[in-house]
Amino acid sequence: MIDVRMLCLAALMGREATGYDIKKELEQGSRTGLVDASFGSIYPALARLAEEGLITARSEGGRGRSGKTVYALTAEGRAHFLKTLCGPLPEEKHRSPFLFAMLFAGELPRERVRAMIDQQIAAWEHKLDSIAAMRAEPDGQSAGADFVYGFGEATLKAGLDYLRRRRSAIETDTRPAGVTANDTRRERTPAPDNEPAAIAAMPD
Amino acid sequence: MIDVRMLCLAALMGREATGYDIKKELEQGSRTGLVDASFGSIYPALARLAEEGLITARSEGGRGRSGKTVYALTAEGRAHFLKTLCGPLPEEKHRSPFLFAMLFAGELPRERVRAMIDQQIAAWEHKLDSIAAMRAEPDGQSAGADFVYGFGEATLKAGLDYLRRRRSAIETDTRPAGVTANDTRRERTPAPDNEPAAIAAMPD
DNA sequence: GGAGTCATGTAACAAGTTACATGATTCG
DNA sequence: CGAATCATGTAACTTGTTACATGACTCC
User: Fold this and answer.
1) Any idea what the Cα angle at residue B129 is, between residues B16 and B121, rounded to 5°?
2) How confident is the model at residue A72 (pLDDT cuts 50, 70, 90)?
3) Alpha-carbon distance B64 to nearest alpha carbon in chain A (angstroms)
């Protein structure tokens, strides 16, 4: 579940679409970030769903020989989709290379750790912006979408808040040479690449 | 990245272990929930890493013919691991069947939606407890682990808070017929599968 | 002696990605 | 006319899971 089949059925709830449309919606639509799939999986999935009668395929030869297949949900398809959603849902998985790397923050150079956190902050700020943009769009306006937007905002904000607190609590720039800086520098470590980065040692 | 190879290298940072040990640690250790892998991928990965010289394999025939292979990180393995962590990290993916389902909350029966939210709340409360337990354990005590625990707690709490607010804001049981029931369960619902569940209509 | 755990490995399968191959239409 | 976009599909490959096959050791 949340396999490509379900993704396709979901995309066809409410409107008909081509495989291309579905892919586009996954990239830019109201569920971006939540799900994804490639053409290589979408087209075979649509073909099979049509075989099974969960969707219908209507060929539309725009002019001469364009060849475009518009898919639409059948009553059985809709029922199947909703029934599956009501069934037992698989556990959610949060694969985060960032958090994985942070586990070894103590073994990585400090600047690198700081850069990673900054990058993560930027990425999440961007996600927040995306949600705000989606909220404003005419489509993606439903009770469910609203719930999901709110959820995303709540957790992203909490995560950002945490990252910012931790980030600013890390000792500021460690200047290698005798640099005169007017900031809150602590020490100048010439240690190159395997300098441990104490992300702990927080006033927290 | 965050493929099984990296997982194995990560598991061998700090101590040596067998394939079995690694699997156990993924299930119960300080990174549970963050990552996972099966025996079917761990053993081949270890064999290949040993071939490449990133880890060493030492056979330990406990007594007679037990056969047990203890792996340990080499200097190159350690360097490779840390270098990879410093390189560009892939985007994080948050595959959440729950949120996916919530997108269609408006098309699902209300009780079902409420049940899903309750289930999610329970699951997340459990995760919070797990983190607290890990915090208390002797292993999994490092600057990085502390950072990750804190992050998990911050986002889980925010998510839980959001879910609780929304959950309590949903109108309470909508009884279809004149059913006099003092519990929350109703088998044989007159409106079968497509009763819309307005998760919106919030005072929020 | 049987249950449970320790321990390793392989083969079949599942699901999806990347890259390729193809071609029409539209817009500047 | 060339670039971008629309549009479909397939074949090879990657990655990992499930299920199976095997066997020792430990504790009751």
Assistant:
1) 130
2) very high
3) 39
